Automatic annotation (TrEMBL):
The keyword Cell membrane applies. Its main location: membrane. One of its GO terms (molecular function) is symporter activity. The chain crosses the membrane at residues 69-91, 97-122, 134-155, 203-221, 242-266, 278-299, 361-380, 400-428. It comes from Granulicella pectinivorans. One of its GO terms (cellular component) is plasma membrane. It is a multi-pass membrane protein. Pfam families: SDF. It is found in: Cell membrane. This is Proton glutamate symport protein. GO terms for biological process: dicarboxylic acid transport.
Amino acid sequence: MLYSAQHMNISKNDLGFLLPGVGLFLVGILTQSLGHGAATARLAGEVVRWAGIAGLAVYGVRRRSLTPWIFIAMVAGAEIGFDAPVFAGSLRVFSDIFLRMIKTIVAPLILATLVTGIAGHGDLKGVGRIGVKSLIYFEVLTTLALVIGLVAINISKAGVGLSLPAAAGAAEAIQKVAPLHWDDFLLHIFPENIAKSIAEGQILQVAVFGVFFGIALACLSEEKRGPVLRLCESLSEVMFKFTNVVMYFAPIGVGAAMAFTVGHLGLGVLVNLGKLLLTLYAALIAFAVLVMLPVALIAGVPVRRFLRAVAEPATIAFATAASEAALPRAMESMEALGVPRRILAFVIPAGYSFNLDGSTLYLALASIFVAQAAGIHMSWGEQLLMMGTLILTSKGVAGVPRATLVVLLATAATFRLPTEPIFVILGIDALMDMGRTMVNVVGNCLASVVVARWEGEFGVEPISEVVLEGMAD
């Protein structure tokens, strides 16, 4: 794609600002760390790091693209959170504004694109075929994610020897969580009021309504179907345009989210529970290299173009720890890459409940961590039984608020594990959530490309001008 080449074409003059900026930022970190907390070293480190950020800002101005600015905003936000944590806490309002604007896009975008994709082509057998292929793909990938999480925690043994008292605030949070049962999740999939589902941002409920509405519309005559179909087509174009406008605020929202996270938790938390964090991130990287990359190569996915296309939504997901924040841009990026809108409209919303690879990997890792921290030895047979349980229970992760915690607690109760070690995980959950959310988004984007290749429809449909316009910004 031309837009991909334009985004990645970095001239030598641009590198003249990028490399010194990165270098100065790293020198600033070393200056402060070698100063052992001395006031002079701290001040010198801050000055050098901000000089590096200024160099990165010049690079961003020269590039005139949103993607570099989002990365730069993440770095600047982390620096603000570290240097002025109190001030950083007040910046959360800007990240909340960005998230609210994005959430207004998600439901109408999914509804309009799903209805258009199903009713516009009238191929109901094709929709069913895409659904079956998607669910098979989701099940295989999430099972592999569970296996990698299980192996990673058994190698690192991050929970061994760790036993901390429960915090009162965390105890109150856990007590408020209701148990999650499979029938509750199944019932939760189906909307009782579409307006309520849209207002609450229940993506899967909106998608289910969209599927049935699209099927019903496809069964009507052209005379009756035409006006509604044209309305949905126009609505989807408007929502993509809306996404383009809101994305101009993305660097501010992402930077504010990063500033609040670092200012609220502090960088010290990385040291306190670094082993657990490193285990999770190493497992996520292993999943990307050992599972996602081979799947992409086998399916014939253009890996370099895919990585360029997914960079922006992945960055947004990492900084905000909210999959919804990245969804509109992810759909736009994948359509610009060549995935037909009707496939996107089904695969990505369904993936938000059935293909959360990062979350399922985290659940496997966290469950064994709880047992290790409690000093309970689990045989491989018991661990595999736990993984089998998680294969079923993890499907509700996106359907219910705080569902990751709910599933973790339900697993602990099922296998008679203590809940105290879960308080330890809650202390750094925000940092862990950033990584697993990014993998969730990348995994769903990859799923859409794989299914499109599987259907033989990748890159065959013309791309909307509104989408291309958004990618060119």
